[in-house]
Structures are given as structure tokens and as C-alpha cells.
Specification:
The complex is a heterodimer of chains A (275) and B (208). With 275 residues, chain A is of the alpha+beta class. Chain A has 2 domains: 74 residues, Nucleic acid-binding proteins (OB fold (Dihydrolipoamide Acetyltransferase, E2P), Beta Barrel), CATH 2.40.50.140; 192 residues, Recombination protein O, C-terminal domain (de novo design (two linked rop proteins), Up-down Bundle). Chain A contains 10 helices and 8 strands. In chain A, the strands form 2 sheets. A 5-stranded mixed barrel of chain A has the order 1-2-3-5-4. Chain A has a 3-stranded antiparallel β-sheet with strand order 7-6-8. In chain A, helix 2 packs antiparallel against helix 9, helix 3 packs antiparallel against helix 4 and helix 9 crosses helix 10. Chain B is of the alpha/beta class. Chain B folds into 2 domains: 49 residues, RecR Domain 1 (Helicase, Ruva Protein, domain 3, Orthogonal Bundle), CATH 1.10.8; 117 residues, Dna Topoisomerase Vi A Subunit, Chain: A, domain 2 (3-Layer(aba) Sandwich), CATH 3.40.1360. Chain B is 43% helix and 10% strand. Chain B has 8 helices and 6 strands, in the order H-H-H-E-E-H-E-H-E-H-E-H-E-H. The longest helix of chain B has 17 residues. In chain B, 27% of the residues are buried. Classes of the chains: A alpha+beta (275), B alpha/beta (208). The interface between A and B is large, with 45 and 37 residues. Bound molecules: zinc ion (ZN) (2 copies). The site of one zinc ion has 8 residues of chain A, from helix 5.
């Protein structure tokens, strides 16, 4: 085998999966090399020196040697371990959602500094913000921009006419806002004026500023739907971490009235599934 | 896997079967297959029987969900063990490891996995419902979470503490820090942070 000089790169660890008995495959996202899959050997053994440095949702400096099929992590040192993202379920859930988006989108060996910077900044914010979901919204808008699916928020995507604050729709398939007339003709879902304002605000504001905005339950549900449909449009697939967020929300509801309800509702769900 | 035309189909089939086992690469699969081929018939029969028997006569314990050949399992039936604590683990092998160390005298609950949001593994894919049902009617005072100290383990522990915490049962998680034989010098930031947070007073040494 020809010896190829190992590379060094900074990267954010997006995810891992077990390989064999003791190894893991890490999915790294590097600002200069894009998405990299690399084997971290022996990291499931207690005395591994690598293990703590290749955990998902951390940023580090990595040495990578070219292996037969996959790269091999030769050394790693942590730059940001973001403990708050690991200790707090809400932050972890949102952070994983960002990691999943990047994991789903990025081509191997494509340099992607702008996306990397947005991801890193968002994870920094997530670790300290009081509003983790707002950070994800902010990230999602920028992510869509970089995937080439920048939502149009100025004029109607169908007829190009100017749009006022009221009566508009949002069409993920067409990629943005639709005017009242086009919306009246059946294009897009309802875009309420608070959510329209919020979208425009998020586009021009910093992540920190976005996280300060108070958003009520209706508006956030509407915004989530628009963003979700836009992402599905961009990635052409359903997103898995989002399903986890829903499970977590269920758990909290469940928490309020303890076990009996869980068991019951799950039983009902199973029965429904059986029918 | 590449199949050489020189390999008889029956052997190729065995090689493939071994290759599907976790941790077995193509080379090892080949070595195992040829070992079986050369071994006496009795050895091959013993292997085949053991394989079938493990499938036919083992099941999950109705209480702790561990793999057992008698339901309830020996641990759940043992009158010497305390009902007050339940140690929740990801895999059956974790029970075996804790039992080998002899460090837990209560009961167990095996989840058969960990929550992994990015792999689409959620609480409903694990034996969580069984755990909640169990906590609902038993005399459990403390649930000890013995998840692995990685992201999946953290997600699982976080989820369980939310659901169980609301039930008024005391919930603890096993400490994590430096493993025996490790160097402080090589420890990562999060391990060191955990080790610092969970440090113990030297004054109390000798108490246990
Ligand atoms: Zn229009
Ligand atoms: Zn049992």
C-alpha cells in the first residue's frame, strides 16, 4: 500500500456508529474538506485515549490517515466539547437536528467553510441560549440558503407581485411567500403575519437576536411546518431527529400524569396500528 | 462479499453466514468456515445444536427483559436481592459485567439498546414501556441509570429521567470519570469535567 501523508484538519463530529467490537466510524465535518467518514479504533474500550475526543457534538483537531476503505483517526484533541449540549436534553435534541441536516446534505470532500461557520456559531449559541429551538430556526434559514433553497420572502414566488403583511401563503414547493391572490387560488399554506414578520426578522438578524424573540405556540407550530416542508424539499427526505423531538415532547406530557397514561396511549397507538 | 468461482456454493453460504456476525470480517469468516469444514462431525453438530437451542429455548424475562431460559429469570426471583433499587442498562452484557463485579444487589432492567436520534431509534424501540409499568406497581425506591457515557447513553438517561422523575421515584446515574489505569494527562475535557464534578472527599475514605 502506498503511504499517503496523513492530513490534519479541524472538524465538528456530527455522528458516530459502532464498527466491529471496539471501533466506531465517526462522521466529521471539516471546513476545508467537507464530510469525512473516519474510523476511530479502539474507542469503545475503557482506556482509549481517542474516545473522549471523537464524541458527536464536539469540535476538535484531527489527524487522519488514509486507510483501505475509510480514513483512520490517528489523533484527536478537543477544541470545544460543548458540555451544555450533552447535559441538557432540549439543547441536545436541537443540536442533533443541526448535525443531522449537515450530515444529510454535505458531499464528501467538498469544502464548505460558510456552512461550517454557521454550524459552529449555532452550536456555540445553543450551548448558552434560553431558546434552543430559535437557534435551530435561525440555522435552518441559513442552511436552506446554502443548499440553494433560499426562501423568497420579498415578492410572490408565483406572480412576482409585491406582498403586504396580511393574507399571504407560503409554498415550500415554490420556495417562498405567495401573495393573497395566488394563495387564494390554492397555492401554499397559510402564512400568518406574525410568522411572516418572524421569518423576515430572522433573515436579517443575528442568532442571538433571534433567540430573544418571544414566539407563541401557534406561531411556532406554523413556522416549524413551513421550515420542515422547506427542508424536505431541499433534502427530499423525512428527517429523523425531528421525530425524536416529538417523542421528547410526548415524554414531557407523559411526565405530568405519570405512567398509566403512557401505557394506555401506547396501547391505543398499537391497536390503531394493528387496524 | 467477493465470491471466488473456486469456492463451492455450500462453503460460500457458510462463509457469508459467518460474515454477517458482528465483528467478523471476510477473512475471519473464511477461516471459521474452513475450520468447521475440517472439524469432526460431532463438533459441527454441537455448534448447530447450540445455535438452534439458543434460539428455541431463550426468551426475555417478563420482568427485567434480560435474556433468560426461565421466566422470570434467576435474578428477578432471587429473594436475597433488594426490590428497592432497579439498575437500568442498555444491553444484557451490561448486566453480566455488573454482576461479575458484584457491585449491585438490587434488580435490573434491560432496555435492549439506547436512544439514538440520528439512527431513528426512539424510546418506543426500547423496553421503556415495560420499565414504566414495572415502576408503576412495584416497591421501587431508586432507579439507577447505568447507560454508557456517550451521546446515545446521555440521550437515553435524559429521556428516562424526565419520564421517571415525574413519577416521584428517586433517579440516579452511575458516575463517570477516569477509568482505572488511565492517565490524567490524556483525559479529554468532558471526562475531566465529570471526574471533577463527581470528586469524593478523602476524609470519608475507609467508610465503605
Ligand atoms: Zn402571486
Ligand atoms: Zn428477570
Amino acid at each position: 500500500m502506498p503511504r499517503i501523508r496523513p492530513i490534519r484538519t479541524e472538524a465538528i463530529v456530527l455522528r458516530q456508529r459502532p464498527l466491529g467490537d471496539a471501533d466506531r466510524i465517526c462522521v466529521l465535518f471539516s471546513p476545508t474538506r467537507g464530510r469525512i467518514e473516519a474510523v476511530a479504533k479502539g474507542v469503545r474500550k475503557p482506556l482509549s485515549k481517542l474516545a473522549g475526543h471523537v464524541e458527536p457534538l464536539s469540535r476538535g483537531q484531527f489527524g487522519l490517515a488514509q486507510g483501505r476503505n475509510l480514513d483512520v483517526v490517528t489523533d484527536a484533541s478537543t477544541l470545544d466539547s460543548w458540555p451544555a449540549l450533552h447535559d441538557d436534553m432540549d439543547r441536545m435534541t436541537e443540536a442533533l437536528a443541526l448535525a443531522e441536516l449537515v450530515d444529510r446534505s454535505t458531499d464528501v470532500d467538498v469544502s464548505s467553510r460558510p456552512l461550517y461557520d454557521v454550524l459552529r456559531h449555532s452550536l456555540d449559541e445553543l450551548a448558552s441560549t434560553k431558546s434552543p429551538r430559535a437557534v435551530r430556526w435561525w440555522f435552518t434559514l441559513r442552511f436552506l440558503d446554502q443548499q440553494g433553497y433560499r426562501p423568497e420572502l420579498e415578492g410572490c414566488v408565483r406572480c412576482r407581485s409585491e406582498v403586504g403583511p396580511e393574507g399571504n401563503g407560503f409554498s415550500a414547493a415554490d420556495g417562498g411567500v405567495v401573495c393573497p391572490r395566488c394563495h387564494g387560488a390554492g397555492v401554499g399554506r397559510r402564512l400568518s403575519s406574525p410568522v411572516f414578520r418572524l421569518l423576515r426578522y430572522m433573515r436579517r438578524s443575528s442568532c442571538e437576536a433571534t433567540a430573544q424573540v418571544n414566539v407563541d405556540a401557534d406561531a411556532s407550530a406554523e413556522l416549524e411546518r413551513h421550515l420542515r416542508l422547506s427542508l424536505e424539499q431541499a433534502l427530499e427526505s423525512r428527517l429523523r431527529s425531528s421525530g425524536f423531538a416529538e417523542a421528547l415532547a410526548r415524554a414531557e406530557m407523559v411526565g405530568r400524569d405519570a405512567t398509566s397514561r403512557v401505557v394506555e396511549s401506547e396501547r391505543e397507538e398499537q391497536q390503531r396500528a394493528a387496524i | 462479499m467477493q465470491r471466488s468461482p473456486a469456492t463451492a456454493p455450500t462453503i460460500a453460504r457458510l462463509i457469508e453466514a459467518f460474515h454477517r456476525l458482528p465483528g467478523i470480517g471476510p477473512k475471519s469468516a473464511q477461516r471459521l468456515a474452513y475450520h468447521v469444514l475440517r472439524a469432526p462431525r460431532a463438533e459441527a453438530e454441537a455448534l448447530a445444536e447450540a445455535l438452534l437451542e439458543v434460539k428455541d429455548s431463550t426468551r426475555l424475562c417478563g420482568i427485567c427483559q434480560n435474556i433468560t431460559d426461565a421466566d422470570p429469570c434467576a435474578v428477578c426471583l432471587d429473594p436475597q436481592r433488594s426490590d428497592a433499587t432497579v439498575c437500568v442498562v442498555e444491553e444484557p452484557l451490561d448486566v453480566a459485567a455488573i454482576e461479575r463485579a458484584g457491585v449491585h444487589r438490587g434488580r435490573y432492567h434491560v432496555l435492549h439498546g439506547a436512544i439514538s436520534p440520528m439512527d431513528g431509534v426512539g424510546p418506543e424501540d426500547l423496553k421503556v414501556r415495560e420499565l414504566l409499568t414495572r415502576l408503576g406497581d412495584a416497591a421501587v425506591e431508586e432507579v439507577i441509570l447505568a447507560m454508557n457515557p456517550n451521546l446515545e447513553g446521555e440521550a437515553t438517561a435524559g429521556y428516562l429521567s424526565r419520564v421517571i422523575g415525574a413519577m416521584g421515584v428517586r433517579i440516579t446515574r452511575i458516575a463517570h470519570g477516569l477509568p482505572v489505569g488511565a492517565d490524567v494527562e490524556y483525559a479529554d475535557e468532558r471526562t475531566l469535567r465529570a471526574a471533577m464534578t463527581h470528586r469524593v472527599s478523602m476524609d470519608q475514605q475507609g467508610d465503605d
